[in-house]
Design goal:
Blueprint: H1 2-40, H2 45-55, H3 59-72, H4 77-87, H5 91-106, H6 110-167
Helix pairs in contact: 1-2, 1-5, 1-6, 2-3, 3-4, 4-5, 5-6
Amino acid sequence: GALAGGLGPDWWLSVRVRRRTEVLRAELPVVAELLALAVTAGEAPAAALRRVALVSRGELGRELTRVVDESRSGVGLVTALEGLGARSASEPLVRFVDGIVIALDRGTPLAEVLRAQAADAREAGKRALLATGGRREIAMMVPVVFLVLPVTVLFALYPGLVSISLLSR
């Protein structure tokens, strides 16, 4: 009981962090496209973030709301975005935030950066799905190899073995 009480919360927290990271990774392409559309329409980066934060309902929307609130409270937008990257365990989100920060610092066209980041996030999602599918495919072969295949071989060989045993008498 003491071992479960000591290790259980750590395990549960790890599971929650992993789920949150997956949710952030799944929401990132849509949010990046919305930001790109808002910036392309002529909104300033802070206003675009505010608009997307109001529209988004997921975990990333809450994080963007926090970024907007921090930037309104006097922290710079770049600093608030860097805080988002530091709080996140999702590598695609960190790259996304870094891309926005670099674009804001250097003055490069933000809409193009956001579109490229959205495409990158979609490709990362596809790669993650393919990797998960490969692992699940191998896991699905275990019951086939150890349960279905032996029963099939038994059904195929049993009549022949019975015939041989009857002939040998």
